[in-house]
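Quick one, probably user error.
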């Protein structure tokens, strides 16, 4: 791989081990896509010969065994786990005239393991949502999954004589449903060690320590290959949730502003919402759940600024991470400042390591005079 970049590949059922040298030698490309919400995925490309070890490791793996894959990179002596997942399927392209055949392994993160077996009807008596999520995630400790659960802001303790919550669908589907009912998100964040993942269930947080700035149009300081922005104020919406009064059963509409404690303004000029979204189904939830669902919807619709670009990791000096803030310099007064990294795609091949990314922001004009230029 590129100078200063070292790739580590671990493969195996349940507990992955370092891949044999013939597999590493056959590897021609790695692609990993990380999204701020939902499931992440990967692609591994190999050359394939008739007697290749890949025939045994990937093609002949038992269908009932989930083949686990861990991808880790070391950039400037700093290791980082990019992916901890399982193989879902593969694609083979035989050589037509000379050359080598190729095989592409396509997989997803460990949430794919949680999405296999429906557990409909499993009761959870007197258990609030966060306790149910913890009980479900405990089953995946064998995969190194460590739960990080943020308790609901307004806990709902179901009384067994009144109702008993029951599992609906697969573990992954049910956890996501509980997250949506509380205005939360659920995702797996691999690392910091190989074979370990953090299972986060909580609000989507858009504040914290920023990553080093992305520089554009700054001569020798430029560290991105391409960066462009779109401003779409028409996307801003004002969600209105309904809370039902327990005495009169009259629904009470409550508007949710685009700026909330969980979605602070990343700029000075926050556009006024141009349309209204009526969230009619929130009346059946508790007031706390309805407000959290409205805040989550307001946060999603408030991102009127969208950026996309690409960079060379060695020139940037580190790996740009999704689900965090990053500074931008040189893009002009409207778009300079802090942005939220919504998704990142890693592309690694012989002699290069590049990333493409998307950024989001809920305002124009930076509200901070400086942004970090080096890592903390």
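Nope, works fine. Designed sequence:
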């Amino acid at each position: 791989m590129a100078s200063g970049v070292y790739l580590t590949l671990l493969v195996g059922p349940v507990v992955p081990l370092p891949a044999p040298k013939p597999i590493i030698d056959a590897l021609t490309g790695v692609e990993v896509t990380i999204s701020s919400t939902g499931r992440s995925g990967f692609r591994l490309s190999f050359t394939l010969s008739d007697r290749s070890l890949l025939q045994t490791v990937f093609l002949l793996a038992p269908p009932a065994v989930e083949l686990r894959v861990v991808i880790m990179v070391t950039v400037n002596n700093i290791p980082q786990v990019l992916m901890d997942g399982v193989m879902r399927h593969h694609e083979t392209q035989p050589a037509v005239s000379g050359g080598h055949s190729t095989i592409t392994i396509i997989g997803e993160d460990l949430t794919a393991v949680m999405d296999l077996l429906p557990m409909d009807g499993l009761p959870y008596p007197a258990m609030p949502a966060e306790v149910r999520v913890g009980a479900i995630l405990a089953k995946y400790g064998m995969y190194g999954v460590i739960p990080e659960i943020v308790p609901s802001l307004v806990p709902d303790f179901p009384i067994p004589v009144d109702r008993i919550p029951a599992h609906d669908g697969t573990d992954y589907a049910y956890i996501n449903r509980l997250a949506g009912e509380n205005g939360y998100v659920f995702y797996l964040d691999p690392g910091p060690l190989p074979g370990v993942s953090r299972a986060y269930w909580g609000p989507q947080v858009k504040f914290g320590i920023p990553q080093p700035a992305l520089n554009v149009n700054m001569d020798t300081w430029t560290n991105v290959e391409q960066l462009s922005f779109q401003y779409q104020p028409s996307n801003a919406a004002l969600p209105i949730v309904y809370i039902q009064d327990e005495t009169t059963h009259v629904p009470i509409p409550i508007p949710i502003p685009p700026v909330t404690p969980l979605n602070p303004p990343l700029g000075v000029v926050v556009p006024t919402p141009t349309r209204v979204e009526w969230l009619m189904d929130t009346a059946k939830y508790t007031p706390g759940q309805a407000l959290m669902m409205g805040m989550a919807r307001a946060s999603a619709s408030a991102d009127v600024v969208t950026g996309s670009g690409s960079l060379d990791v060695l020139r940037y000096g580190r790996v740009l991470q999704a689900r965090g803030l990053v500074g931008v310099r040189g893009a002009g007064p409207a778009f300079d400042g802090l942005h939220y990294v919504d998704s990142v795609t890693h592309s690694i091949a012989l002699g290069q390591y590049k990333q493409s990314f998307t950024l989001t922001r809920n305002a124009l004009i930076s509200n901070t005079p400086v942004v970090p230029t080096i890592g903390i």
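The chain has a mean pLDDT of 87.
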